[in-house]
Amino acid sequence: MQDYLEILRPYQRSLLEKIREQFRQGDRGCILQLATGGGKSKILAAIAPRLRSTRHQKLVTATNPLF
Question: What's the DSSP call for residue 38?
Answer without folding.
Answer: S
